[in-house]
Amino acid sequence: MARNAAKAHAPSTLTVKGQDIKLRTIGSVLIAALAIWFIAANTKSVTIRLWIPTVTLPLWSVLTVTFLVGVVLGLLIAHRRARQ
Description:
The chain is 58% helix and 21% strand. The protein is of the alpha+beta class. It has 2 domains: 1-41, no CATH class; 43-84. It has a two-stranded antiparallel ribbon with strand order 1-2. The two termini are 23 Å apart. The chain crosses the membrane at residues 21-39, 59-78. Keywords: Cell membrane, Membrane, Transmembrane, Transmembrane helix.
């Protein structure tokens, strides 16, 4: 019985126009779209203190960098877990 529980299941999919799409893909696209909308809605300049220097940047650039760093770290962690 423990052997059956250890087997990996196929990822959940949704059929759209005859093509199977992973739910993970739909979720990723939805999160990316919401992040882009949020970044586009925040265009004012902000002052950020980086330990010693203080910089003034548009908020959209700070949010974009933060989002991209989060995506890269998430992909690295997922890749590392998949290898184990």
